[in-house]
Amino acid sequence: MRAIIAGGGTGGHVIPALAIAAELKSRYGCDLLFVGTARGMEARLVPAAGYTLKLIDVGQLNRVSLMTRIKTLAGLPLSILASWRILSEFKPDVVIGVGGYASGPALIAAILRGVPTMILEANVIPGFANRKVARWVKAAAVHFEETGRWFPHFEVTGMPARRAFFEVSPRPEDAAPTLLLFGGSQGARALNRVLVESASELKVRIPGLRIMHQTGQPEFEKIAEQYRAAGVEAEVSAFIDDMPARFAEADLVVSRSGASSVAEITAAGKPTIFVPLPTAADDHQRYNAENLVKKNAALMIPEAELSRERFVAEVADLFADHKRLAEIGAAARKLAHPDAAAHIAEMAAKLAGKTS
User: Fold this and answer.
1) What 3-state DSSP class applies to 54?
2) Which of 15, 144, 226, 285 is the most buried (most CB within 10 A)?
3) pLDDT at residue 185, as a whole number
């Protein structure tokens, strides 16, 4: 079996793609090739994982200036042609688009060549490229049932998350109350600001509160200094390498609601306050968060409403209600998909006409 995995850009695209690749290789002995761009995270992560990566040049179409969109559209035929050549050389049995810049051209080339195609769609509202090719792909693996309306053929598989997140144990009753805040690998200024502004009052309202705060590298020094100036003790990191371990130590998480974060939070069964990134493409983070809120599996504060007063009230009320924290965490865990990568790999193998 031979498969191409196309797309990338962010860790939310690349990390699940690598999990799927590992399943395809271990279960089906699959020969794999990745197609991506030089500016995406795949340029670093895919070769580091031991896979071959072919690069194509493709620009952005969504949430960009008119000039950028025109330039991208003008270059799209060349991107499709480059993908066509890669397919001609590799001769895949199936092409899997995981979203991001390179996904669209590779899927279009595969559709034109008659190669079976499938999409991994992590968000409630599909990304721009996935929406444009939805009607022509043979199958879609989606995280949310609601997403299926975009695709003629879909299965709810969930998003792959590292096994360690599923192994996070419930918090001991006598553990110190602990809050974990992170805004992705680059951090989130709005989240950083509100926690620093709220920390002193939270320490008063929640005796013994322990704060773990991933700031992102750009704001690390500034945020650490602000904590010191305020005389507030906090565990401040630019980046947390072992996030499952930090999840295990947290009673409550505050984060953005990108697809990977949602998958990891549900896998760990962690009560969470989501603050969706308001500039995310198609407002997909808000839809992701709202999906969990409707199922009583999370809370949400829109960034426009993220004041110190609102944040302190929400966090303090949750820590005062252990039963509610436990109920939210349990509801979140029910939405997890521990076999997502295996399920997606099985879908791809069926499209390729292969069995284990």
Assistant:
1) strand
2) 285
3) 54
Instruction: Produce one character per residue of 241-263: b if its CB has 16 or more CB atoms within 10 Å, e if not.
Output: eebbebbbebbbbbbbbbbbbbb
User: How distant, in Å, are the alpha carbons of 158, 334, 353 from that of 263?
Assistant: 8, 11, 29
d(CA 13, CA 42): 9
Tokens standing for residue 140: 């879609």
* Dihedral sign from CA coordinates of 29, 20, 238, 177: negative
- Alpha-carbon distance 32 to 25, whole Å? 8
- pLDDT the model gives residue 74: 59
What tokens were used for 279? Answer: 């500039």
What is the pTM (predicted TM-score) of this model? Answer: 0.84
Q: At which residue do the structure tokens 């790999």 appear? A: 345
Q: Are 318 and 254 in contact (CB under 8 A)?
A: no
Distance spanning both ends of the chain, measured CA to CA: 10
The single residue listed with the structure tokens 């509100």 is 194
Chain centre distance of CA 21 = 17
Please, which contacts does 132-135 make with residues 24 or more away whose CB atoms are closer than 8 Å?
132/104, 133/97, 133/104, 133/107, 133/108
pLDDT digits (tens, 9 = 90+) for 214-238: 998 889 999 999 999 999 999 999 9
- For the record, the structure tokens of 146 come out as 């609601």
Read off the amino acid at residue 212: M
